[in-house]
Structure prediction request, 147 residues.
Amino acid sequence: MNIGEASKASGVGAKLIRYYESIGLIPAAGRTAAGYRVYSGNDVNVLRFIKRARTLGFSIERIQRLVGLWQDRNRPSAEVKRVALDHVAELEAKITELRAMSDTLKELANACHGDDRPDCPILRDLAHEDGGVQSRHAGCHRATEGP
Prediction:
């Protein structure tokens, strides 16, 4: 099948398919006499695998590792589990970081009156190198923001 058909069958855009090929995530496609790429059903399966892994947030490097493990029928499942759990740990760390950012922004937004006055603890916090710890509880009535 050509790249358009492979794209449709896998749900991966043609541009991404070419990119995955260029970085070696998938093998170089066969070519017709006219130079068009030709993909097999197995290529489509690999593309679906990659798409699902990307949906779960795996990096390209980890996906490359997972594809290799998937294709190696003699691989220990412990290695696959290790890759997955390493990714889970990173996801949980990101969730913690995002939750802390959200909490900080909520705190700053709650401290802002959101009226016609120019003073704003959100901007004051962003202007401080240390994260504006002192400004978080100052409210919107101090005129200390700006360059």
The longest strand covers residues 30-31. The beta strands are 30-31, 37-38. The mean pLDDT is 89. DSSP finds six helices and two strands in the chain.
